[in-house]
Amino acid sequence: MALTTVLDKAGQAGAAPAAKKARTAWGKELRLRKRVRLADQAWLARQLAVLSRAGLGLPPALGLLARQREGKAVGELARTMREELLAGRSPAAVTKAHEAELGPLFSAMVGAGETAGVLPTTLAKLADLLETRLKLGKKTRSAVSYPSIVMGMAVLLALVILLVIVPIFSRMFAQLGASLPAPTKVLVSLSRFLVGHAYVLPVLALALAGALWWASRDERARYTASAAALRLPVVGALLGKAALARVASTIATMMGAGTDVLTVLAYAAQSTQNRVWARVLGRAPDLLRSGRGFSESLRLATAEATGTDANFEVLAQMVEVGERSGSTPDVLAHLAQGVTEEVETGLETLESSLEPLLIMFVGAVVGTMIVALYLPIFHIVTVLGNQTPSSGGS
């Protein structure tokens, strides 16, 4: 009790100036409107769960966490939430008011935990879910970023060769009057086109950026891209399993916290970036309201959507198993854990397999261009070498 009082007073003393600054300083007020990073959400949920289980109330716990993350978005948010709790608002109302920063899942889990009277346990489950997402997201970004960086370096090297090195060799070939082999002619012609039409590259870059911007905001384009991603060789299977793990873990965690199925499906649809999954999960509540079961609704929603894969049927089957045994959250939690491990193993295998292939690709592209440049020189040296003995003998 004494510890709680001391921390609460300390939090009040340190929070007032900074909270006022967050309200009056335009830059910090703007930052509070932005979504807090997933890593910070997981940290906040974990720390609140630990401190709550230790007997510390939410206001002093938030004050303590605000001081630990002083000057950061999550610290300012914790301080603001603490003030709102001290003003008499409930934890569910506070997190709901900051849903733009914390995300709908955080808000829903806190509301469910408060209603059921198991807020510390719910916060721990939320932290587990967010930490799993964070870990899988890091591995996915690592597997994607390495090939992207290598491909970008290959393109950059090719452009340097075409725009800088090839023109130098082209002038040298013209002075020598040497006849160029076919590969060298192609390389020189491409270089002259790019140098003579320098505006082509920025125009293409702007056109690509514009197309990507439009596609990211057009629902039909996003749906088509999501469906196509699930059909990609090797990578598509990993993306499908990652989406399944994300959806299954969200449903398991929220149902385990006592949230009703309709609300769970609404938040699960928001938790996935794949539009095919979002459409199926968004359609299932309508079917549930018509009197169908959970698994049957998922199957019918899957049948209505285009671009689905086998993972949708896996989810429906596991939900059916959970319905029969009366333990849907546990069944889906085990499914999410197993699929997450499969995705992690698949990403590690993919990354290790791509590394030598990418090195070979870069070597082939750059090596082919270098060989094409030196072919005329090899030819000239060969001709001169054949002529030197005969001229010496005469």
What is the structure about, briefly put?
With 394 residues, the chain is mostly helical. The protein contains 18 helices and no strands.
Run of helices and strands = HHHHHHHHHHHHHHHHHH
Mean of pLDDT: 83
The amount of helix comes to over 70%
The whole-angstrom Rg is 30 Å
How many β-strand stretches? 0
SS content category: mainly alpha
Strand content: under 5%
Instruction: Please give the alpha-carbon distance between the first and last residues.
Output: 111 Å
Tally of discrete structural domains: 2
The 3D shape can be described as: elongated
| Biggest sheet details | none
- Regions with little confidence, pLDDT below 50 for 5+ residues: 1-33, 390-394
Number of helices: 18
Describe what this molecule looks like in 3D.
The chain starts with a helix and ends with a helix. The radius of gyration is 30 Å and the shape is elongated. It folds into 2 domains: 101 residues, no CATH class; 249 residues, no CATH class. The N terminus and C terminus are likely disordered. It has 394 residues and is an all-alpha fold. Helices cover 86% and strands 0% of the residues.
Task: Please tag this protein with its features.
single chain; 394 residues; mainly alpha; 2 domains; elongated; disordered N terminus
Write the layout of secondary structure elements.
Elements: H1 2-24, H2 26-32, H3 38-53, H4 58-68, H5 73-86, H6 91-97, H7 99-102, H8 104-116, H9 119-176, H10 182-196, H11 200-217, H12 219-230, H13 235-256, H14 261-271, H15 275-289, H16 294-304, H17 310-325, H18 328-393
Helix pairs in contact: 1-2, 1-4, 1-5, 3-4, 3-9, 4-5, 6-8, 8-9, 9-10, 9-13, 9-18, 11-12, 13-14, 13-18, 14-15, 15-16, 16-17, 17-18
